From TrEMBL:
<protein>
    <recommendedName>
        <fullName>(S)-8-amino-7-oxononanoate synthase BioU</fullName>
        <ecNumber>2.6.1.121</ecNumber>
    </recommendedName>
</protein>
<feature type="binding site">
    <location>
        <begin position="232"/>
        <end position="233"/>
    </location>
    <ligand>
        <name>NAD(+)</name>
    </ligand>
</feature>
<dbReference type="GO" id="GO:0051287">
    <property type="term" value="F:NAD binding"/>
</dbReference>
<dbReference type="InterPro" id="IPR044262">
    <property type="entry name" value="BioU-like"/>
</dbReference>
<feature type="active site" description="Proton acceptor">
    <location>
        <position position="236"/>
    </location>
</feature>
<feature type="binding site">
    <location>
        <begin position="10"/>
        <end position="14"/>
    </location>
    <ligand>
        <name>NAD(+)</name>
    </ligand>
</feature>
<feature type="compositionally biased region" description="Basic and acidic residues">
    <location>
        <begin position="73"/>
        <end position="84"/>
    </location>
</feature>
<comment type="function">
    <text>A 'suicide' enzyme that participates in biotin synthesis. Catalyzes the formation of (S)-8-amino-7-oxononanoate (DAN-carbamic acid) from (7R,8S)-8-amino-7-(carboxyamino)nonanoate (DAN), a function equivalent to the cannonical BioA reaction and the first half-reaction of BioD. The cellular requirement for biotin is thought be low enough that this single turnover enzyme supplies a sufficient amount of the cofactor.</text>
</comment>
<keyword id="KW-0521">NADP</keyword>
<feature type="active site" description="Proton donor and proton acceptor">
    <location>
        <position position="240"/>
    </location>
</feature>
<keyword id="KW-0520">NAD</keyword>
<comment type="similarity">
    <text>Belongs to the BioU family.</text>
</comment>
<feature type="compositionally biased region" description="Low complexity">
    <location>
        <begin position="86"/>
        <end position="96"/>
    </location>
</feature>
<keyword id="KW-0093">Biotin biosynthesis</keyword>
<feature type="modified residue" description="Allysine">
    <location>
        <position position="165"/>
    </location>
</feature>
<dbReference type="GO" id="GO:0009102">
    <property type="term" value="P:biotin biosynthetic process"/>
</dbReference>
<dbReference type="InterPro" id="IPR036291">
    <property type="entry name" value="NAD(P)-bd_dom_sf"/>
</dbReference>
Length: 371
């Protein structure tokens, strides 16, 4: 497989880890990265170490409607709109965030330059980009589908990969499949840990059965870098707590989120999450979406996982026996290893399929990641 040139949209926690992990994957060269304030492009390959050092603890932010700031992974549109949410939400502040250089984010790097249109700037370079990882929180349900539309409208021919979490977004991508196919785009959706890594594990575990009765995914995540460097991920997870939804989580201030975290001593527990594993397993013919249950525990103050990540698939074999196949992740494997490793593996699988002329929308159970 020839070298894969890829770009990352968003340099918050997920985007930064993607760049870091890519240095340990053969055949991958990062050639572009952007966030709200800037873009860095080098077709010969970015100096990833310099970019990571310059942006460490440094969340891109910019004014949006007055003193309140919007922060984090999501680049602004060329024409900002009120319905486009950002990593930090509509009312997020950057108080307490370490800054490097005169401005935040990519522009703090020697390779970066400021721009008002970061996504458009990456699209303008897309003829030389094989794949794009969309490392943006989906705090507006149709945001990532709209980003995909923009690449299709620019006649991009290549791979788009995301690590989205919400079930309903898959349908929004399916609605755009004809447009993506006509452009020559292979879109791999939900390609992180869950959905993604664990979706694929469930699909493999299901092969023992002729009928799957239930899939249970229970995850544990310890954020060694804490809430500050994972604002978008934590905010999106809060939307799954009892009494919260994506709208209320988006509108919470940083102080309100810190208070919620304090009230739970840094440990948040989730049950019956609206995670895209359900529809992705259904579309792969594994089981009905209603038979998939996802929950987990997030500890934002500890390096260690609060619980072992486990996938359990219960079903009936051809000879009438009922059994449960279980897959576990080792507790020492970090979130970045289990999210960004698979994401880059699925990116490679997407490139192989794209070069073979396979276009459209694919889930993680449809493609196995490349090593």
């Amino acid at each position: 497989m020839d070298d894969v040139r890829f770009a990352v949209l968003g340099t918050g926690g997920i985007g930064r880890r993607t760049l870091e992990v890519s240095q340990h994957k053969d055949g991958l060269t990062a050639v572009a990265a952007c966030d709200r304030n800037g873009v860095a492009v080098n077709h010969g390959g970015l100096d990833v170490d310099e970019l990571l050092e310059a942006t460490e603890g440094n969340i891109a932010s910019g004014p949006q409607g007055g003193p309140e700031q919007s922060s984090g992974d999501e680049p602004r549109d060329s024409e900002p709109r009120d319905d486009v949410a950002t990593d930090g939400g509509a009312a997020a502040a950057t108080e307490g965030v370490k800054q490097h250089g005169d401005q935040a984010g990519v522009v703090a790097s020697e390779q970066g330059r400021p721009t008002e249109t970061p996504i458009d700037d990456v699209i303008a370079e897309s003829d030389a980009i094989d794949a794009v990882l969309i490392a943006l929180p989906n705090l507006e349900h149709d945001f990532i589908p709209r980003v995909a539309e923009r690449f299709a409208e620019a006649d991009y021919e290549g791979v788009l990969v995301d690590v989205l979490k919400r079930s309903r977004v898959i349908g929004m991508l399916d609605d755009r499949e004809e447009q993506l196919t006509e452009s020559g785009i292979t879109f791999v959706c939900g390609a992180g840990a869950t959905p993604g890594f664990l979706t694929g594990a469930a699909a493999l575990a299901a092969q023992s059965f002729v009928e799957v009765e239930e899939v249970e995914i229970w995850w544990g995540v310890g954020l060694k870098s804490g809430y500050e460097d994972n604002r978008g991920t934590v905010r999106e997870d809060i939307a799954h707590l009892d009494g919260y939804d994506i709208e209320t989580a988006r509108e919470m201030s940083e102080a309100e989120i810190e208070e919620l975290i304090d009230d739970h001593d840094g440990v948040l527990e989730f049950h019956d999450m609206e995670h895209a594993d359900d529809v992705l397993l259904e579309r792969a013919g594994i089981c009905d979406a209603e038979d998939v249950h996802v929950g987990g525990v997030l500890d934002v103050r500890s390096d260690e996982k609060p619980t072992t990540t486990t996938v359990s698939v219960t079903g009936t074999t051809f000879d009438g026996e009922t059994g449960t196949n279980t897959f576990q992740l080792d507790d020492v494997t970090s979130m970045e290893a289990n999210v960004n490793g698979p994401a880059l593996g699925y990116l490679k699988a997407g490139v192989r399929n794209n070069r073979a002329g396979h276009y459209g929308v694919f889930g993680p159970a449809d493609l196995m990641p490349g090593f």
